[in-house]
Amino acid sequence: MDKVTVKTFQEMKDNGKKITMISAYSYPFARIADEIGIDSLLIGDSLGMTVLGFENTLEVTIEDSIRHSQAVARGAKRAHIIGDMPFLSYGINVEETVRNAGRLVKEGKCESVKLEGGVERVEEIKEIKSIGIPVLGHIGLTPTYINEFGGFKIQGKNSETASRLLKHAKLLEDAGVYAMVIESVPWKLAKEITESLSVPTIGIGAGEYCDGQVLVIDDLIGLTLDIKPKFVKKYADVHSIVKNAVKEFSDEVKNGKFPSEKYRYD
Ligand code: KIV
């Protein structure tokens, strides 16, 4: 069992092997994903919506990210662990960005960090890298920009915005990212970006030509109820499984069936 590193990501792209990534936030889910050989675990700031019940990702704090990263890191031995820098943990000044990236590594036990944005992130990426932390870029529908975008909207749909995204991707590569997430863009644009870069692309709602794919674990196991983007494939209905189990427990307690003799101490 070889540990997956940022070097593995590049080797996989170079050898035409697809990279798998799951956004997960807890010890048990990290263990499950690691056991089946998922290549990387991102402790996404989507945790604000999936686990904490916020409307968007903007309220997630660096402390939230660190605490959940620690849990994921404890559950995974092989997968590469990526900390997602939440809103305002970057973008204020470079020193603060580097300190927060460092906290995700030192306290959160992450092995690389992700932050959203294009040209505006170049200096921060270089500085984070200068202290030895690899950086994953993120372009397209970057959720911390929803107020700017007017909601969770597909990006790069016309030629002007598409060529802007292509430029951002190139700038991130030049700044030294080891890979980049491309979120919610037309598949042809994601293909063009993927073919124009040496570093791997990880798609989410960006079609099949990316070098890897990421989904949020709560989405793919059917725990997310309110938002159903087109790109999410629901592989299980865990919401119903859990609901039925809890209902059965509740019914059995109410009607005196649980705990039976089997579940008590003598
Ligand atoms: O926060 C997150 O989970 C993400 C992934 C969906 C890429 O940014």
Q: What helical percentage do the residues reach? A: 40-55%
**Order of helix and strand elements from N to C terminus:** HEHEHHEHEHEHHEHEEHH
* Strand arrangement in the largest pleated sheet: 1-2-3-4-5-6-7-8
Instruction: Tally the helices.
Output: 11
Count structural domains: 2
- Classified by CATH, the class of the largest domain is Alpha Beta
- The coarse silhouette is globular
Task: State the CATH topology of the largest domain.
Answer: TIM Barrel
**Count of DSSP E strands?**
8
- Low-confidence spans: none
Largest sheet: 8 strands, parallel, barrel
Task: Say which molecules are bound, naming each kind only once.
Answer: 3-methyl-2-oxobutanoic acid
Mean pLDDT: 97
Account of the protein in words:
By secondary structure, the chain is an alpha/beta fold. The chain folds into two domains: 230 residues, TIM Barrel; 29 residues, no CATH class. The protein is built from eleven helices and eight strands. The protein has an eight-stranded parallel beta barrel, surrounded by seven helices. Strand 4, helix 6 and strand 5 form a beta-alpha-beta unit. Helix 2 packs across helix 4. It is globular. 3-methyl-2-oxobutanoic acid binds next to strand 8.
List the helices and strands and how they pair.
Layout: H1 6-14, E1 19-23, H2 27-35, E2 40-43, H3 47-50, H4 62-75, E3 80-84, H5 94-106, E4 112-114, H6 122-130, E5 135-140, H7 146-149, H8 159-175, E6 179-183, H9 187-196, E7 201-204, E8 212-216, H10 217-220, H11 238-254
Helix pairs in contact: 2-4, 5-6, 8-9
The chain binds 3-methyl-2-oxobutanoic acid.
